[in-house]
C-alpha cells in the first residue's frame, strides 16, 4: 500500500561544485530537503549555506564502499528516507591522446566515474528498496486502474553521463568518454533490474557546461578553445549548469513516472 508523499529528500554527490551544486540549489528551491555530498567537505558546506530548505553536508569519496554506505546512512539518520539521488561526482582526468595518457589516469577516471556511480547505485537502491512506496497525487490515477497496478514510487535516481557517453568528439579523452558510455550501461541495467520495485534510474547527457571542470580544461587547452567549444553547439554557446539542473529535477520528479532507463541530452542541438 503506497503512502502519501511528504516533503521529498534528495541526495546529490559532487554537489560542492558545478552541476551538482546548481542541482542541489534547484532541488531546494523546489522544496526538497537536501543531502549535499562531496569529497571536498568544505565546498559541500558552502553549497549547504546556499539552500533554503533543511539539509546536511556529508563528506564522501564515491570510490570507497564504506564511504558511500556512510553517506546513505547519514542521509537516512537525518531524514528517514531518500526519495531521489543525483550521482554527479565525476572527474575529467588527463587531457591527452591515448598514446600519451598515463595508466594511473585511466584507473582514476574509471574509479570515480564508473565504480563511483555503481557504488552509489548499490547503496542508494538498497535503501530505496526498504522504503514504503509513496504516491504524490492519487486522485490523478484514480480512474486509470489499468495503467499500472503498482503506482507508488520508492525512489528516482539520475546519473551524470555526458554527450561523450553517446559519441566521442574532439577534445574528449578516451578514458573519460569510455567512463561516460559505462554510466549509460549502469543506468539501463539498474533501471531494468528495479523497475518493478518502483525505482526509476535515468541519466543526463550534457555536452559542455560552464563549470569549474570545464574551466580547468580550458586552462590546459590551446588559446581559442572557449570559442571552439561554443561553436561546436548549433545553439552557439555552452550550457549553464542551471540548465542541466532543471533537467535532473524533472527526471527525478513525479512528472515522468513511466520514464526509466532513459538518457536526456542537454546539448544545445547536438
Ligand atoms: N562540465 C561539463 O561540461 C560536463 C559535461 C557533461 C557531463 N559532465 C559530468 O557532470 C558531472 C559534474 O561535472 P561538473 O562540471 O559539475 O564538475 P566539477 O568539477 O565542477 O564538480 C565535480 C564535483 O565532484 C567532486 N568529486 C570528485 N571526485 C569525487 C569523489 N571521489 N567523491 C566524491 N566527490 C567527488 C568534486 O570535488 C567536485 O565538487 C561529472 O560527472 C561530469 O563528468 C560535465
Task: Write a brief structural summary.
The protein is an alpha/beta fold and 270 residues long. The protein contains 9 helices and 9 strands. α1 links the parallel β2 and β3.
- Output mean pLDDT: 92
How many domains, in number, for the residues? 1
Q: Which term fits the overall shape?
A: globular
Structural class: alpha/beta
What is the CATH topology classification name? Rossmann fold
> Which sequence of strands runs across the widest sheet?
4-3-2-5-7-8-9
How many strand segments?
9
List low-confidence stretches: none
Q: What's the CATH C level? A: Alpha Beta
Radius of gyration: 18 Å
Q: What's the helical proportion of residues?
A: 40-55%
Q: Which series of helices and strands comes N to C? A: EEHEHEHEHEHEHEHHHE
Q: How many H/I helical runs?
A: 9
As a percent range, the share of strand residues is 15-25%
Q: So, CATH architecture?
A: 3-Layer(aba) Sandwich
| Biggest sheet details | 7 strands, parallel
Distance between the termini: 43 Å
Q: Which compounds are bound in this model?
A: nicotinamide-adenine-dinucleotide
For CATH, the homologous superfamily is named as NAD(P)-binding Rossmann-like Domain
GO molecular function, one term: oxidoreductase activity
Organism: Branchiostoma floridae (Florida lancelet)
Keywords: Oxidoreductase
InterPro entries: NAD(P)-bd_dom_sf (IPR036291), Sc_DH/Rdtase_CS (IPR020904), SDR_fam (IPR002347)
